[in-house]
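Q: what sequence does this backbone want?
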């Protein structure tokens, strides 16, 4: 029996049992050695994570999908896209940026492509569709290279070398242009505009674009040219009329009427004063209560307000203006005094419009009526007139001498046509 207990199989079993007694049992989720769970959650539980080849292929697919959206809107035989925006309005266009702006995407690579189109529109203004299609194609040709197990950074370095070669080729292809030659400039502008919906009206839109740009162009003393189209060339869209009625005004227009019907609606060579202050009695900042014991005191208070307003109007009338334009309100009392002085008044105009009027009339915007001087009065405008177009009144300041701002008046049958012409 004693010999049996030393049998090799029995010894092995005893050793195993002793080892199990020394080692504690491991619970699910515990690390070897009795530690706590080792997984640290950095990402949200619902986060989807793609890595490696799968992530690269989905990015390429997203880029190609965005490019396929705008592919049919490129070139002179392009078709318009009809989009329904969230508000229920319709956008009809073949402008790449305008289309992709309305497209709602969630994929980060697709968002990057749309951002590319927006940047192109901001910086250059043209080529928004081309840049998307070119980017989509470059992603497409990278796919077989990835299949050959080439590293993405290697592919990108190849693209960078191709960029250097392309820039050298462009220098060889480029040719100088005389900026003063209208035909050469028109040819370039038509290359950009004639792929759009407006091309069927010939050179109408390109001529408008060239004239507006030349109007707002300022040549600096060092020969540099400053062209601020966004601030000083405003597109005014008025429904009705024909597209051939579109024009660039030698001045500005805005959708406002005079404040009193007895004021003049047409003035030749007006003296223009621009204000950035209210022509009405302003309330105190802190709330105040006044107790009045006699009726005459109430009349005195009203008289004080009237005298204050009269003083403001007298300050303005000292410079003998014909037209007063203010960004703020005008009280009935101020209207009365100014109308007696033979002035026409326009109120609550936008700051941007006021800046444009200052550029065409030569007036300076005044913030306090006490500071008004003869040098602040604008005299470069040839004609002030108010016309009724459709259902609304529009103010025109035209026939200006050397205007440095302008309004581009667009006429068209429907809102969709006008929006596309503006783009």
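A:
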């Amino acid at each position: 029996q004693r010999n049996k207990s030393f049998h090799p199989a029995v010894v092995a079993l005893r050793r195993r049992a002793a080892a199990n007694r020394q080692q504690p049992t491991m619970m699910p989720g515990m690390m070897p050695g009795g530690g706590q769970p080792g997984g640290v959650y950095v990402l949200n539980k619902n986060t989807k994570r793609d890595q490696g080849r799968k992530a690269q292929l989905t990015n390429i697919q997203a880029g190609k999908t965005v490019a396929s959206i705008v592919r049919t809107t490129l070139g002179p035989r392009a078709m318009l896209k009809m989009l329904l925006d969230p508000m229920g309005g319709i956008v009809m266009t073949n402008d790449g940026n305008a289309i992709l702006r309305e497209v709602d995407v969630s994929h980060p690579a697709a968002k990057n492509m749309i951002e590319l189109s927006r940047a192109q529109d901001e910086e250059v203004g043209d080529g928004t569709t081309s840049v998307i299609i070119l980017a989509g194609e470059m992603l497409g040709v990278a796919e077989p290279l990835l299949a050959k197990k080439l590293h993405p950074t290697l592919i990108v370095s190849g693209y960078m070398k191709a960029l250097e070669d392309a820039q050298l080729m462009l220098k060889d292809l480029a040719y100088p242009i005389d900026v003063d030659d209208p035909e050469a400039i028109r040819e370039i502008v038509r290359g950009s505009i004639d792929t759009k919906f407006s091309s069927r009206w010939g050179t109408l839109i390109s001529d408008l674009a060239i004239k507006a740009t030349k109007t707002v162009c300022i040549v600096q003393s060092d020969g540099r040219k400053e062209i601020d189209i966004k601030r000083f060339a405003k597109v005014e869209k008025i429904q009705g009329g024909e597209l051939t009625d579109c024009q660039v005004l030698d001045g500005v227009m805005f959708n406002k009427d005079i404040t009193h019907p007895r004021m003049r609606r047409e003035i030749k060579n007006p003296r223009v004063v621009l204000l950035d202050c209210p022509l009405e009695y302003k309330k105190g900042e802190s709330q105040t209560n006044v107790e009045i014991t006699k009726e005459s005191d109430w009349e005195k208070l009203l008289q004080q307000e009237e005298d204050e307003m009269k003083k403001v109007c007298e300050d303005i009338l000292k410079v003998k203006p014909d037209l007063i334009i203010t960004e703020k309100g005008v009280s009935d009392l101020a209207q009365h005094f100014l109308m007696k002085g033979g002035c026409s008044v326009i109120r609550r105009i936008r700051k941007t419009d006021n800046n444009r009027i200052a550029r065409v009339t030569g007036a300076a915007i005044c913030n306090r009526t006490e500071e008004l001087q003869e040098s602040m009065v604008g005299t470069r405008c040839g004609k002030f007139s108010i016309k009724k177009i459709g259902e609304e009144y529009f103010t025109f300041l035209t026939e200006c001498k050397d205007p440095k701002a302008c309004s581009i008046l667009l006429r068209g049958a429907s809102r969709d046509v006008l929006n596309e012409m503006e783009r």
